[in-house]
């Protein structure tokens, strides 16, 4: 494929159109990036464009994809496209793309993307229109979004976002291989705007970089655990009995029956107001046990953390 002619209009055009029996999807934006064209990036050895990934997919038998049109930079217009045809790079980082979904039927469809900011960028406009501006900022790789009906995905579209300052299949993937060789057993963030189909590589000989990265990850987990324990520490209820004057007690429990039975010297003869009847005499206690419940944090679990 040749480069765009000099003077190619620096304006947004319709890049992708997908028509189904439920909706019509439009994706428009600039079909090229000036830096990419200047540096001749994303070219094969024969100077042709590399192949980009574009994967529309119906997730229910009720949804029928009737036609798909993709922008052709050589013809400068939309061209009929189907799965399996060659797709050239059309989507780049730091560029904005407007997504419009026009509902054919009176259906309730919602837009979903793993990234919160992109998910909130596409909103319903009236009863039969979803629209918003997608911007992947400086993140490159594969991205996909879904259209959902009643919370269940019915359509998925996967795109490939290309970098604008380095060659995608050479420089960028070489950097990923170097990073993967150094950082061991770490997971990528699932809430990014894009993702890469990269895996983890096991190794027996860990470098100091790998050791400190793993140590930092474990230490952060420890800090989070300690902070969680600090906000809601382990505790237990401790019962405390103390001897108080009977006139000052607020609540006396049943344990005072056995206590006074063993300590009759805390009983005073009171034939007028006494409520304890013993051998025809009336007595009233002078001192009783008062029970208090206290929350105690001095537990074995908390001691172990300290």
The secondary-structure element order is: EEHEEEEEHEEEEHHEHEEEEH
Q: How confident overall, as mean pLDDT? A: 80
Q: Could you give the order of strands across the largest sheet?
A: 5-4-1-2-6-9-8
* Tally of structural domains: 2
**Percentage of β-strand residues:** 25-35%
> Distance between termini?
67 Å
Q: What's the gyration radius in Å?
A: 36 Å
Largest sheet: 7 strands, antiparallel
Assembly state of the chains shown? single chain
Shape: elongated
Low-confidence stretches: 4-8, 184-191
- Helix and strand content put the structural class at alpha+beta
What does this structure look like?
The chain is elongated, with a radius of gyration of 36 Å. The chain folds into 2 domains: 13-169, no CATH class; 236-297, no CATH class. The protein has helices spanning 34-39, 116-121, 168-182, 208-231, 255-262, 300-305, and strands at residues 13-20, 23-29, 54-58, 65-72, 77-80, 96-103, 109-113, 123-124, 129-135, 141-149, 152-161, 236-245, 267-269, 276-278, 281-285, 287-296. With 306 residues, the protein is of the alpha+beta class. Mean pLDDT is 80; it is low at 4-8 and 184-191.
Write the layout of secondary structure elements.
Blueprint: E1 13-20, E2 23-29, H1 34-39, E3 54-58, E4 65-72, E5 77-80, E6 96-103, E7 109-113, H2 116-121, E8 123-124, E9 129-135, E10 141-149, E11 152-161, H3 168-182, H4 208-231, E12 236-245, H5 255-262, E13 267-269, E14 276-278, E15 281-285, E16 287-296, H6 300-305
Antiparallel strand pairs: 1-2, 1-4, 2-6, 3-11, 4-5, 6-9, 7-10, 8-9, 10-11, 12-16, 13-15, 14-15
